[in-house]
Amino acid sequence: xxxxxxxxxxxxxxxxxxxxxxxxxxxxxxxxxxxxxxxxxxxxxxxxxxxxxxxxxxxxxxxxxxxxxxxxxxxxxxxxxxxxxxxxxxxxxxxxxxxxxxxxxxxxxxxxxxxxxxxxxxxxxxxxxxxxxxxxxxxxxxxxxxxxxxxxxxxxxxxxxxxxxxxxxxxxxxxxxxxxxxxxxxxxxxxxxxxxxxxxxxxxxxxxxxxxxxxxxxxxxxxxxxxxxxxxxxxxxxxxxxxxxxxxxxxxxxxxxxxxxxxxxxxxxxxxxxxxxxxxxxxxxxxxxxxxxxxxxxxxxxxxxxxxxxxxxxxxxxxxxxxxxxxxxxxxxxxxxxxxxxxxxxxxxxxxxxxxxxxxxxxxxxxxxxxxxxxxxxxxxxxxxxxxxxxxxxxxxxxxxxxxxxxxxxxxxxxxxxxxxxxxxxxxxxxxxxxxxxxxxxxxxxxxxxxxxxx
Length: 455
Ligand SMILES: [Zn+2]
Ligand SMILES: [Zn+2]
Hints:
Elements: E1 13-19, E2 28-33, E3 36-42, E4 44-47, E5 58-63, H1 66-70, E6 75-79, H2 85-88, H3 91-98, E7 102-104, H4 106-118, E8 127-129, E9 135-138, E10 141-147, E11 156-162, E12 165-169, H5 188-196, E13 200-204, H6 221-229, E14 235-238, H7 244-256, E15 260-263, H8 266-277, E16 301-305, H9 315-320, E17 334-337, H10 346-358, E18 362-364, H11 381-391, E19 395-399, H12 403-415, E20 420-421, E21 429-433, E22 437-439, E23 447-453
Parallel strand pairs: 3-6, 6-7, 7-8, 12-13, 13-19, 14-16, 14-17, 15-16, 17-18, 19-20
Antiparallel strand pairs: 1-2, 1-21, 2-3, 4-5, 5-23, 9-10, 10-11, 11-12, 21-22
The protein binds zinc ion (2 copies).
One zinc ion binds at residues 82, 84, 150, 172, 377.
């Protein structure tokens, strides 16, 4: 056994997560075979540091990449599954430490290029653009991109094939029959995997504790339209900037209700611009400049803002503090949270909601409405069961979750008849071949700060 040196042999197929297994955020996954490693995703997470003197400080952190930096001559390449921050946000900070080519699809590549530009790295980082359905040989790994549905354009699962076995890495996914943007979820490619034989399925656990099915992205339209059309005041909707489908839904509602749709703040405007560049923004949905908002009658304003998690510098927080030059809200204006509460952000969100209500704004959160105004991008229990029935992997590897999500997901997979099911953590070595087993604490892991941002 070569595990002492952590160099996989020709009969070995390994999974080694450095981040994202045991937490939601900062994904950094490694697959090992025949002397080489393949990195899948390299993301960040945001944490409030234990600094009681200055509670407005937020940290951007990533998984400690020490292990792969020490083995960088064995790193064949980096694959980015989709453009969420917890999957690609650490690349501009960490890439120089391991310097391997990056493989991803067009939308994700465009998001990444704009980030790299800010770090003056655009000319240095080789980005190889692939198409949905493509297969690329990356060192000893053959990687195929499979379309899924999620909450951002171009989400992909990966089939990673080697002579020692095949892995299906789901990345973030859900089953959405009407995703607003992109093709609806197709089960056939996943059913076909069972015929080919999948050694292990590495799978999203975010919503493993939730029974039933996730809400379709298209289902948020009626309630959002009702909430926007029933008021004569200004409306501000807060959502994640990368959810282009949600932005398109809001743009459409604005058009139908006689309002000007205006994304406010840099990150939203950047995302709309990326959606235009990559052909995802519908030509019939106008976008108003935020500088015009102050001149419009209240009933014609539909602004979209980031900051649904209570982030101190985001647009919503600035609107609450009346610190936004282009738009001042007045008593009675409506603020809609078209978003979920990410675990850990409860206090920051509660403080923001208090501040908005104190100014007399009419605040509506997702849990207060009759019908959905937010749709999660992750699979609930019935979706997980369907995927296991289709793919029928030999080994289930729950990831992208906190310990309770992973443990529950492991149980669900076992009950579904999956032969091996491992609930491990960052730094554990999942031996997929030759003999399945989980070796605990093989690599020391942790998190490293990338950036401090003060309010
Ligand atoms: Zn994610
Ligand atoms: Zn995601």
